[in-house]
Specification:
mainly beta; 6 helices; about 10% helix
Length: about 325
């Protein structure tokens, strides 16, 4: 049957504000609309749910669900091929944010400076405290300041004999879930670099190196694999080989990391939970005849997708520096 009426508008206000209930499947097996219950009034009538509890009874109605993380869960708690690909809701539910009654909307729909009326004055809109009006900007990837406020990067260094020891901590200070989270393609990269007084890079003697999924090649072009540092991501791997690029003929291969919409298994997950801290140490070799004072640089980079995926999709400038020390 062809869409008609408001259905022609796709997913917009009417879709979200007519949700009666959201039932969370603990297994994540009913993502999206499969977990929602909707109200669709008869022709000529209307219903519109929201979080304001002083609306006059009628088409508009207060619904406590709209202030609850359960409202967000169906689209942020989903299993694909027995792997919990979207796990933000479960991460939040296990965090102190849930225990403190801090919900998704409190951060991602926090009030913003702007209008103080929910409706035009001539239509009966009353002046309200802006703190009671949720922003529909949907704070997240589209707001650099918001993203940078989720983590705190710190480093300290000291010389011991002929080595320079660098200690780095990354604390999840503002995310009510793991960092990074969302689609399994989200990832963070920590880069640690030590230099002598002349600017020469000191060799890493002991410590982690950035994994291959961060991209090979020139560091100036984002090829950070193998450099001192760490990578943070949920990594999935293919169960079987799949046809490669059809332009290459009948070849089969595995994509690494693998996309969640194919049968996969979870290979690793070292993302940083809410209010947790990741700590790592790096030991660099010093020149035999001195070379100090020494300089340590750290950078924490966020990417919306893995570098190899971004190259296939021709995504450019997909880096946001969440923090740095120097």
């Amino acid at each position: 049957m062809a869409s008609e009426g408001v259905a022609l508008e796709g997913v917009f206000c009417d879709f979200c504000h007519k949700i009666r209930d959201a039932r969370v499947d603990p297994t994540g097996g009913r993502p999206g609309v499969l977990s929602y219950s909707f109200l669709r009034p008869a022709h000529g009538e209307d219903v519109f749910f929201g979080q304001l509890d002083d609306v006059i009874a009628g088409p508009d109605a207060y619904h406590p669900l709209y202030q609850d993380s359960r409202y967000c869960a169906p689209c942020h708690h989903g299993t694909f091929w027995d792997v919990l690909a979207y796990s933000e809701f479960a991460e939040w539910a296990a965090s102190s944010y849930a225990k403190r009654n801090i919900h998704c909307q409190d951060c991602h729909m926090k009030p913003a400076a702007g209008p103080r009326r929910f409706a035009p004055e001539q239509e009966g809109g009353v002046v309200r405290d802006p703190a009671t009006l949720s922003s529909h900007v949907q704070f997240g990837l589209n707001d650099d300041a918001f993203m940078r406020g989720t983590v705190a990067l710190n480093s300290r260094a000291h010389v011991a004999g002929d080595h320079l020891h660098v200690h780095v901590s990354i604390e999840n200070v503002g995310g009510g879930h793991h960092m990074p989270t969302g689609s399994p393609m989200r990832n963070m990269i920590l880069l640690v670099q030590a230099l002598d007084a002349s600017g020469r890079i000191l060799p890493l003697i002991e410590g982690d190196r950035v994994p291959d999924w961060a991209g090979t090649g020139s560091p100036e072009q984002g090829g950070y694999a193998g450099l001192p540092g760490r990578g943070f991501a949920k990594i999935l791997v293919d169960l079987v080989e799949y046809p490669a690029d059809p332009r290459m003929g009948r070849q089969f291969s595995r994509v690494y990391p693998a996309p969640y919409w194919r049968p996969t298994v979870l290979a690793s997950d070292n993302r940083i939970p809410a209010e947790a801290t990741d700590r790592s140490t790096y030991i660099f070799g010093l020149p035999e005849k001195g070379g100090g004072p020494y300089r340590v640089r750290t950078r924490l980079i966020y990417r919306r997708t893995f570098k190899t995926w971004g190259e296939l999709l021709t995504i450019k400038n997909d880096e946001l520096e969440l923090g740095s020390t120097d």
